[in-house]
């Protein structure tokens, strides 16, 4: 207790003695004595609890003594409400031109300031490189993050939307379900080909992928749960045009619709060994439509197409790619035809229309020589049957002469008639033997 407290205590003792003196003199009033006693007690309590002068005007605290060279520190006044106190409310406003936050080593970690466009905020990493920048440019507000990420989460702290830059430098945005499986992703491909869009099922396995192929072709792929492409649509990698692939669950193409090298549209049907078993489209040579039906080995067995002269053709081929049966429109313009060939492709039977519109059926040997001819005579006198030798020359002619009489001529190898029916002699026949013989030149040129 200081000198002030001692002085006050002395004053209380003096008041007590004065009360006792008044009692002895008979001038004491009970009320005054009680008031004085209470005042004294209150004064004493104040002095012992809070120090002297707390019921009176307080004196200013003196500055603490300092050593030579030290700055004199003046403590804040206890009744100054404008100064922040530890643990108390923060200041309402801070006014400055810039603000920097440094780490323990004095390196700048956060900077707040302004430039010619407006205010900015920079956040630096431990190496002093700015990783996050919020500022303004001539077009408006800008948010820059170096290799950063924006992670939007639900109420259960699960990532739902993530915008980031991968280690390869490509930007991506991913959307997640409640099981943390990616259901949608879009961004820049990490192979440097271009943008991509990926849509996944709830299991996180991609079902739809739209991206850029190796050759810069746009592709849209549809995948099954085993990550096998079951359908693809896009631009062909060889630059020939559009492409549609329909695949089996194993990912192997079964149907391909694309553009051929010559600009012809084609639809191909393939087996599991990647062999085309059917082709439908436009012929490469520009002659018209085309239908190929192939064996499991991919070799054509049936071909329906249009010939060079615009004639329709249907060919049946063996595994050696030799035509064994040909049906269609004759390329000479005479009419329809049917050809039957041996396995080597050599013609043996031809059913067609002759030069004069007569129907004819020819049988040929392996040397392409006609040995039998049956049909309508060129001179329109009736039916005709020619039996030829292996050299293709007539040996027997059965037909109708100009008189409407049936006739049979036997001819030797020199072309001389040796026997003739009816038996009137060769001179009585008004039709020359060669008139009964068709032009043995085949009307169809087999490709």
Give a description of the structure:
Among the domains are: 1-56, no CATH class; 95-146, no CATH class; 334-447, Outer Surface Protein A, domain 3 (Alpha-Beta Complex). Helix content is 10%, strand content 41%. 10% of the residues are buried. The termini are far apart. It has helices spanning 3-25, 30-50, and strands spanning 99-102, 108-114, 119-124, 130-137, 140-145, 149-153, 159-165, 171-176, 182-188, 195-200, 206-212, 218-223, 229-235, 242-247, 253-259, 265-270, 276-282, 289-294, 300-306, 312-317, 323-329, 336-341, 347-353, 359-364, 370-376, 383-388, 394-400, 406-411, 417-421. With 447 residues, it is mainly beta. Helix 1 (3-25) runs antiparallel to helix 2 (30-50). Residues 25-36, 50-78 and 424-447 have low confidence and may be disordered.
CATH architectural grouping of the domain at 334-447: Alpha-Beta Complex
Could you tell me how far the N terminus lies from the C terminus, measured between alpha carbons in angstroms? Answer: 133 Å
Remind me, CATH topology of the domain at 334-447? Answer: Outer Surface Protein A, domain 3
* DSSP summary, beta strand count: 29
Strand percent estimate: 35-45%
The unreliable regions are 25-36, 50-78, 424-447
The helix tally amounts to: 2
| Protein structure class | mainly beta
pLDDT average, as an integer?
A: 79
Instruction: Kindly provide the name of the CATH class of the domain at 334-447.
Output: Alpha Beta
Radius of gyration: 58 Å
Shape: rod-shaped
Helix percentage range: under 10%
Mind describing the biggest β-sheet?
Answer: 24 strands, antiparallel
């Amino acid at each position: 207790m200081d000198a002030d407290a001692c002085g006050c205590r002395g004053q209380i003792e003096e008041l007590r003695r004065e009360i006792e003196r008044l009692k002895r003199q008979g001038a004491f009033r009970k009320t005054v004595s009680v008031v004085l006693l209470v005042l004294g007690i209150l004064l004493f309590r104040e002095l012992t609890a809070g120090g002297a002068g707390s019921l009176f005007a307080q004196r200013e605290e003196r500055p603490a003594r300092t050593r030579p060279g030290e700055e004199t520190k003046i403590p804040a006044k206890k009744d100054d409400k404008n100064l922040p106190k530890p643990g108390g409310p923060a200041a309402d406003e801070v006014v400055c031109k810039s603000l920097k936050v440094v780490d323990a080593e004095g390196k700048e970690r956060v900077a707040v300031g302004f430039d010619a466009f407006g205010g900015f905020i920079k956040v630096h990493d431990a190496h002093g490189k700015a990783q996050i920048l919020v500022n303004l440019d001539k077009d408006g507000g800008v948010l820059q993050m170096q290799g950063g990420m924006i992670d939007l989460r639900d109420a259960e702290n699960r990532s739902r939307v993530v915008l980031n830059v991968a280690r390869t430098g490509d930007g991506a945005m991913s959307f997640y379900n409640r099981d943390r499986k990616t259901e949608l992703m879009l961004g820049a491909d990490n192979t440097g080909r271009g943008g991509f869009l990926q849509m996944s099922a709830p299991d996180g396995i991609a079902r739809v992928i739209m991206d850029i192929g190796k050759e810069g072709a746009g592709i849209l792929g549809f995948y099954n749960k085993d990550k096998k492409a079951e359908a693809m649509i896009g631009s062909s990698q060889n630059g020939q045009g559009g492409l549609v692939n329909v695949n089996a669950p194993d990912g192997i193409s079964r149907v391909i619709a694309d553009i051929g090298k010559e600009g012809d549209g084609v639809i191909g049907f393939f087996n599991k060994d990647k062999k085309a078993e059917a082709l439908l489209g436009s012929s490469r040579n520009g002659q018209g439509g085309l239908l190929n039906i192939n064996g499991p080995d991919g070799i054509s067995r049936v071909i329906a197409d249009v010939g060079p002269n615009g004639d329709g053709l249907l060919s049946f081929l063996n595994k050696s790619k030799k035509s064994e049966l040909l049906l269609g429109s004759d390329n000479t313009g005479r009419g329809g035809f049917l050809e039957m060939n041996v396995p080597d492709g050599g013609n043996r039977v031809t059913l067609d229309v002759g030069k004069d519109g007569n129907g004819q059926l020819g049988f040929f040997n392996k040397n392409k020589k006609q040995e039998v001819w049956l049909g309508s005579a060129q001179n329109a006198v009736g039916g005709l049957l020619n039996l030829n030798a292996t050299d293709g020359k007539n040996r027997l002619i059965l037909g109708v002469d100009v008189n409407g009489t049936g006739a049979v001529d036997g001819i030797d190898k020199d072309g001389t008639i040796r026997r003739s029916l009816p038996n009137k002699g060769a001179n009585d026949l008004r039709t020359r033997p060669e008139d009964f013989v068709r032009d043995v030149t085949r009307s169809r040129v087999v490709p």
